Each structure stands twice: as C-alpha cells, then as structure tokens.
Amino acid sequence: MAQYCRRRASFLSGSPVIKHRFLSLAYLLTLIGGAWQLARHSGVPAFLLPAPQAVGAALWQQRALLAHHAIYTLGEIVLALLLGGGAGVALAILMSASPLLRRLLFPLVTASQTIPVFALAPLLVLWLGFGVASKVTVAALIIFFPLCLSLFDGLCRTPPGWLELAHTLSRSRLRHFLHVRWPAALPHFFSGLQMAAILAPVGVVIGEWVGASEGLGYLMMHASARLETPLSFAALALLMLLALSLSGGVALLRRRFLYSA
C-alpha cells in the first residue's frame, strides 16, 4: 500500500510538466493562428488558404463526416502500431539475443530503409487492394525501423554491472531479460514508440492518398479536388490532433513506467 501511494504521488507530481506542455502547445497554436491571419490579409486567395473561421465552420458543419473518416484512420493507425511495433520489438529482441541473427538480419533491416515508402505505396495498394491492409502495411513499414533500432540499441547497452550481478543471482537467460535487460531498455523503447506514434499517421495518410475510399487522407484529397479547402484543412487539423494525442499518450505511459517507481 505504501509503495502504491508513493507511485501515485510520483505520477501526480508530473502534472506541472503536463500543464507546461499544454501551455507550450497553446502558445504554438497562437503563433500559427497569428501567422495564418497575416497570410490571409496579405491577399492569399481563400481557395488556397481559407480563414481560420472557415475551417472552424467546416469542422462543426461537417463533424459527422469528419468523425466517420477520423475513426477509420484511427483504426488503421492502431493496427499499424500493433503490427509494425510488434514486429519491431520481436526482431530487436531476437537480434539482441543471438549474435548470429544479428549478423544475418541487421544488414537486411538497414537495407530495407533505403527503399522510399512513397515508391512502395502504389505497389502495396496494387497487391493488397484499396482496403485497410495496404494502408496498415505502409504505416507499419514506416514505424518498424525506428522502434526496432531504438529498442535494439537499448538492449545492447545494458550496464555490464547489472548483467554481472544478475548472473551471480541466476543463470536463467529469461530472468536476465525480464528483470535486467528489458527494464534497462525501457527508455529506448519509449523513445522509439513515441517516434512511431508520430510517424504512423503519416504512413496511413500516404496509403490513403495513393488509393482509398475512406479515411482523413482520402477526404483531404477529395475535398482539395473539389476546391473545398476549408474541409481539407479541417481533416488536416483532425489528423494533427490524432498524432498529438497518440504522442501525448505515449509520453504519459513513459512517465508512468519510468518515473513512478
């Protein structure tokens, strides 16, 4: 009970940090809004850069349409995080556990990042169709590498003193991993996960731009083709909100698991 209270107090003590981040975000949005208004008053046509009020009106008037496409895109993002994140974590653990697998797989993982995802997206849509699978695969390929590399680096940087102490207490490799190597690699894991949370919406939208019938990326393309710029900006704003929410969620998890002991 005492340990729970200490953890709870430590977690709640992070509220000033969270408040500071919200204030920083509000300050940034204010600057963007001011620059936006200045650009509008400089004579930029409304079909190129709509007024913030027009975007706000589109958000409200088209809220049902935007919510439908946002839910669809969010589902793709979550699936991509599960698929790409799970594959990245599994491969990082395998490479850190086996020097042979490390020599075989690490060059392949590195070489896979030399192929632009923009070039693969049309092929994936052709192979997997216009449904969810192609978008999830594009996003999973984008987020796989940073999470895998970050966790692999963390697993390989376990302090030698920790490993020596663990070896004197137990010879089980599984116990070493669960109680020593994995906890030591958690900061690297959350760094990679936060990057993946930011990149996942990008990958999903790239897939939706190439070919889709639903999603915020599809809605942005469809609205831009009909010169409904406020609706396109409203979809972009929702996409940014999804990315920021995912990143903030990972930041809260990081604080909960790393700083509440």
From TrEMBL:
It holds the Pfam family BPD_transp_1. The chain crosses the membrane at residues 21-39, 70-93, 105-130, 136-156, 189-211, 231-253. One of its GO terms (biological process) is transmembrane transport. It comes from the Bacteria. It is found in: Cell inner membrane; Cell membrane. Keywords: Cell inner membrane, Cell membrane, Membrane, Transmembrane, Transmembrane helix, Transport. Residues 66-252 form the ABC transmembrane type-1 domain. Its main location: membrane. The keyword Cell membrane applies. GO terms for cellular component: plasma membrane. It is a multi-pass membrane protein. Belongs to the binding-protein-dependent transport system permease family. This is ABC transporter permease.
